[in-house]
Design a protein that fits this description.
Blueprint: E1 15-18, H1 20-23, H2 34-39, H3 41-47, E2 51-54, E3 58-59, E4 71-75, H4 82-94, E5 98-104, H5 113-118, E6 132-133, E7 154-157, E8 162-165, H6 180-196, E9 200-204, H7 221-237, E10 242-245, H8 251-255, E11 266-268, H9 272-282, H10 286-293, E12 303-307, E13 314-315, H11 321-331, E14 338-339, E15 342-343, H12 347-350, H13 355-367, E16 371-375, H14 433-438, H15 443-456, H16 458-462, E17 464-467, E18 475-482, E19 485-492, E20 498-503, E21 513-514, E22 528-533, E23 538-542
Parallel strand pairs: 1-2, 1-16, 2-5, 5-9, 9-10, 10-11, 11-12, 12-16
Antiparallel strand pairs: 3-4, 6-8, 7-8, 13-15, 14-15, 17-18, 18-19, 19-23, 20-22, 21-23
Helix pairs in contact: 9-10, 9-11, 13-15
Bound molecules: 1-deoxynojirimycin.
1-deoxynojirimycin binds at residues 64, 67, 168, 204-205, 246, 311-312.
């Protein structure tokens, strides 16, 4: 598997995020399931990824697509049985693929038996599993996250006559992590799934685990103390498994989730993501370079996770109000494309279905520091459906073929859990795996190729990263180095041909070779090296030559 049994496997892994419900339906009920995913594991393996991240698979009323967990110990019946899940793990592992699942520690569904019991009376033994208050005046400095649906972080419970705290939907009460029983309960949940053989967790919404008066109730010391305990627990019993933090915060604040290498192994780099789009639209590398320079160093054993899109809206929480306004204007001109502080569209439509731009952003994803996460369907350029509510428009069935229902399920099924994309530009007749697998020049084959190239060069996975200065700001130039291997990466962010002049005298005598295309470039001689890039062109230049 990738780096084999190396405990640091995640440091240069490629992740694939998928929604079981959306991937493949084996029993023709219109909903994807574990057996369906098993059928498609060869596809995932061929893509070249190392690890699958499964969106929540647990029992849930699905009012937040499974992030509203009703029982941490059972699987959603739509997806199959425990045996099916165990078969999935075994089949994935047999192919060298790892699987991480979501772990939701911050909240549960209001249908969870703990909450049902907790709200039953003020004296219920489970009362302290959640955060209750006689008034809705506490923790006023905590912002509201789901701005489009929620007016307060408190909801009044008629049954017991008090308010309960919720950072997300009001049907998702926050657990009270101050309660030692809740702290232990979450460790027990982890142990159950880790014992079954999963390779780690993507830990949901970790900044919000604790509440303290007079703070914004995010990133609190108590939260870090508990998360360190979670890590100790993992290290004692489950070596080689990974913890990935979802903390949508500024780099300085996310830094603390790595601790001294004793908290999370990985954390998403939320702020860099919108800046890739911003830089492209402005044809200026500055937003990317600035945020990367502002990103503190992390412990040697840790790694960032980077992504272009995921199952949520493209969040604009980590940009300035001016940048947000610009992004909304540029990428979400119609109001229905917006949600909360973000944009509910997929990668290909965001980039006008322009193959050059799609390649360019993926190239940045594969060459900037961090382990990339590909969102299912983006590798074939799937579209979205903004007519669907909430974030459902980016969670439509995977498009396997041009058969009815895109080959996601049998043709005789009356309907799928949500409609398959069927518009002229992105519909399944045009955009599907089968057609792209046959076409040597397809986006799918290009993605497979770029992933392969990345894996052949460890510098791209875990090398150092230095941004090179050059007068022309439309070109992003960075250098990745690892174990004597140097790779110079260039991205032309503009629609025009651009040239850059670089000081490469340290590599005098080297003949640069572009890794993806195999083309060679003129040898580096004097002080000044000039390169011309076609519109949106990217180069991964291996600087290998006579020993220096
Ligand atoms: C973060 C998840 O990514 C999102 O989909 C979910 O709605 C919230 N957490 C609340 O659980």
């Amino acid at each position: 598997m990738g780096r084999g049994n190396d405990e640091l496997w995640y440091k240069d892994a490629v992740f694939y995020e998928l929604y079981v419900r959306a991937f493949c339906d084996s029993d023709d009920d219109g909903k994807g399931d574990f057996q369906g995913l098993i059928r498609k594991l060869d596809y995932v393996q061929e893509l070249g990824v190392d690890c699958i991240w499964l969106l929540p698979i647990y029992a849930s009323p699905l009012r937040d697509d499974g992030y509203d967990v009703a029982d941490f110990y059972s699987l959603h019946p739509d997806y199959g049985t425990l045996q099916d899940f165990q078969a999935l793990l075994a089949e994935a592992h047999r192919r060298g693929l790892r699987i991480v699942t979501d772990l939701v520690m911050n909240h549960t569904s209001d249908q969870h038996p703990w909450f049902v019991e907790s709200r039953s009376s003020k004296t219920s033994p489970k009362r302290d599993y959640y955060v209750w208050s006689a008034t809705d005046h506490k923790y006023r400095d905590a912002r509201i996250i789901f701005l489009d649906t929620e007016e307060s972080n408190w909801a009044y419970d008629r049954i017991s006559g008090e308010y309960y705290w919720h950072r997300f939907f009001s049907h998702q009460p926050d657990l009270n992590l101050d309660n030692p029983a809740v702290q232990q309960a979450m460790l027990d949940v982890m142990a159950y799934w880790l014992d079954m053989g999963i390779d780690g967790f993507r830990a949901d919404a970790v900044p919000y685990l604790y509440e303290r008066e007079g703070t914004n109730c995010e990133n609190l010391p108590e939260t870090h103390a508990y998360l360190k305990r979670v890590r100790r627990f993992l290290d004692q019993r489950y070596k080689g498994r990974v913890l990935l933090a979802e903390a949508n915060q500024w780099p300085e604040d996310v830094r603390s989730y790595f601790g001294a290498g004793d908290e999370f192994h990985m954390a998403f780099h939320f702020p860099v993501m919108p800046r890739l789009y911003l830089a492209l639209k402005r044809q200026d590398r500055s937003p990317i370079v600035e945020i990367m320079k502002r990103t503190p160093a992390i412990p040697e054993s840790c790694q960032w996770c980077t992504f272009l899109r995921n199952h949520d809206e493209l969040t604009l929480e980590m940009v300035t109000p001016q940048e947000r306004a610009f992004m909304w204007d540029a990428y979400a001109p119609q109001p229905e494309m917006r949600l909360n502080l973000g944009i509910r569209r997929r990668l290909a439509p965001l980039l006008d279905n322009d193959r050059r731009k799609i390649e360019l952003l993926n190239s940045m994803l594969f060459t900037l520091p961090g382990s990339p996460v590909i969102y299912y369907g983006d590798e074939i350029g799937m579209g979205d459906n903004v007519a669907l509510p909430d974030r459902n428009g980016v969670r439509t069935p995977m498009q396997w073929s041009d058969e009815p229902y895109a080959g996601f399920c049998d043709q005789a099924v009356p309907s799928t859990y949500t409609p398959v994309i069927d518009d002229p530009a992105y519909g399944y007749r045009r955009v599907n795996v089968e057609a792209q697998a046959r076409d040597g020049g397809s986006l799918l084959n290009l993605m497979r190729h770029l992933i392969r190239c990345r894996k052949q060069h460890q510098a791209l996975g875990c090398g150092s990263c230095e941004f090179l200065e050059s007068a022309n700001r439309t070109v992003l130039t960075h250098l990745r180095c690892h174990g004597g291997e140097d790779i110079l990466v260039l991205h032309n962010l503009s629609a025009a041909t651009q040239s850059v002049t670089l000081d490469l005298q340290d590599w005098a005598g080297v003949v640069p070779i572009d890794i993806p295309s195999g083309s060679t470039f003129p040898p580096i001689s004097g002080r000044v090296y000039e390169l011309k890039l076609a519109p949106y062109q990217y180069l991964w230049l291996l600087l290998e030559g006579p020993p220096r």
